[in-house]
Amino acid sequence: MSKSSPRRPFGGKSTGTVTVIEARVHRSWARNARMAFVLTAVIAGLLAAVVAASYMHPILALFVGVGVGVPLGGIVWVLVRIWPVIRLLWWWTPEIGLAGLLLVGWVQLASHTPTLVTLLVVALVVGVPAAVPVIRHQIMAWAWCLVVRHRLRVCFAQFIIANQSGSLPLILWATPTPVGERVWVYLRPGLSVKDLEARLDKIAVTCHASTVLIERASDGNAAYVRFDIKRREVLTANVGSPLVDVIDPDTPTVEQAPQEVPTALDLPDVQAPTITLPKQGGTTDRKPAATSTANGSKPAASSSTAEDDVSDWI
Amino acid sequence: MSIVTEPAPVPVGPGLSMFDPIFIGIDEFGQPVYITLAYRNLLAGGEPGGGKSGLLNCIAAHAALSVDSRLVLLDGKLVELGQWEDSADAFIGPDITAALDVLRRLQLVMNNRYAWLRAHNRRKVTAADGLSVITVLVDEIAFYSATVGSKQEQEEFVALLRDLVARGRAAGIPVVAATQRPSFDIIPTSLRDLFGYRAAFRCTTSNSSNIVLGHGWAEQGYSATDIAPTNQGAAYLIAEGGVPRRIKVAYLSDAQIAGIADYAAWIRRPGTITTPPSSPADWGMAA
């Protein structure tokens, strides 16, 4: 919707994209605004006139209706006309808020404290998070969350435009995960998880990430999806098993039964026709019928033995 | 040294049960990953050195320390599960005849259990029944199904294993199988697709990853080719959630396995390991 009019001042980053999209877009912002003005003015004016008619002469009421409808339509016209600006401001609300907070904080600090104290406070506020790794990583992780929401929007605006008006999915909140970020998105008509899965590699590149996975975030609503953006491998350290701690270290060791140790351990020791697979020592003894010819290399001889076994067990 | 106050150590199990969730590692959020194996079958695949036997050893350790558990181990390489031989009820090496024997025994046990369940108007074995869960661990399933023995024996092995996988679930006979690449020429698709839980360790191609995890997962971004060759034990696991999760399998060193295996053998068969001390004084020495 934002890619329609070449006259509009905001709402797109590159004019090249605007030209490409424009052909597919039916209504321009100006037409949308005009339509909104007419609709609002007519509906509000008629309503106002009907209400006013019960108090005064109908012709006077009509003038009242015009007086109410036109200003209201004007307000709506302005809102629709500057919608790209509002949207842009909404997208950058966290950044604008943070920047404002920092600016106000800095001005207040500078105007109420001597220079030395100001510098000291700034050094503490900047230095402590920079020096403590845990805080630094947390701040970086949240900063990436802000970045990744914008990058995802770039993805949708640049190469995942699915419907005719070019409306973008609603990019909801993002949280840091140990491997990267997780972003929840509400898809607009024209997109599906399958469409997005075909472009996982491009999304990963745009997000400066390693891989991206997309999952449905809701069982009942296919539009509600979750992006798992992965930018680092965390499963590199060894993981121990808690079973090691439940055993008694003073356990008496098992006395191993003396096993037949094979001797032919090198190639020259083994002649070609006499290769035999190592036999089982202790286990096969428990099954008396199988011990005599239990060897995988002589299948013809052992199959009859196996049949005997079945009759033994049954 | 006349009165010994401390009696000989009585073997006490850690109170684990095969119906408990089994700890197998952590996921990407650092959270522990558990699988409940009593009613499930697990297939692990991936290239050599990926960590398959680490997963099998984790499960074997839990099963060996569980009170209501019996272990049946089939290991064509002898060394991957060999340390559990003393805790296991059957340990089969590279010997397809013995493997077929033990699978036939298991089939019979399964049939008997179903008859027992039917007699009690029940549909599955529960923890309250007091029956043991017979965990069947098969390392290198390809060795028995495609390498050793005659064609007939291999087919019988696959048929018996498929029967166990298909019907053993409710009778408390879960099967955990590992192989490098479970393609149709190694194990039939009809057997492979019966395994509910899948663990894909590093694969060289996304096609191999799809063979382990199931068709289509690589296209959705879950491909075990992502795993670095140096990162042993990292895997994609499809278990309770239904969606592959990246996990790191807990690693047990040989010494730790030996310790757990000794302890498990001791709590299982205390009489067979240490000769019973003749006098109370000897008990103190033994302790």
Features:
heterodimer; A: 314 residues; alpha+beta; disordered N terminus; disordered C terminus; B: alpha/beta; Rossmann fold; globular
Quick rundown:
The complex is a heterodimer of chains A (314) and B (287). Chain A has 314 residues and is α+β, with helices and mostly antiparallel strands.
Euclidean distance between termini CA atoms of chain B? 14 Å
Which superfamily, in CATH terms, is the homologous superfamily of the domain at 31-195 and 260-272 in chain B? Answer: P-loop containing nucleotide triphosphate hydrolases
What is the H-and-E element order of chain B?
EEEHEEHEHHEHEHEEHHH
Q: Extract low-pLDDT stretches of chain A.
A: 1-26, 281-314
Category from helices, strands and their pairing of chain B: alpha/beta
For the residues shown, what is the average pLDDT of chain A?
79
Oligomeric assembly: heterodimer
According to DSSP, the number of beta strands of chain A is 4
Structural overview:
With 314 residues, chain A is of the alpha+beta class. Among the domains of chain A are: 15-88, no CATH class; 92-131, no CATH class; 133-235, Threonyl-tRNA Synthetase, Chain A, domain 2 (2-Layer Sandwich), CATH 3.30.980.40. Chain A contains eleven helices and four strands. Chain A has a four-stranded antiparallel β-sheet with strand order 1-2-4-3. In chain A, helix 2 (29-53) runs antiparallel to helix 3 and helix 6 crosses helix 7 (133-158). The longest helix of chain A is centred in the middle third of the chain and has 26 residues, at 133-158. Chain A is elongated and about 115 Å long. Mean pLDDT of chain B is 85; it is low at 271-287. Helix content of chain B is 35%, strand content 17%. Chain B has helices at residues 52-65, 96-119, 141-147, 151-167, 189-192, 206-213, 254-268, 270-273, 280-286, and strands spanning 22-27, 32-35, 42-45, 69-75, 90-92, 133-139, 175-179, 197-200, 234-238, 245-249. Chain B is α/β, with parallel strands linked by helices and 287 residues long. Chain B has a domain at 31-195 and 260-272: Rossmann fold, CATH 3.40.50. Chain B has nine helices and ten strands. Chain B has a ten-stranded mixed β-sheet.
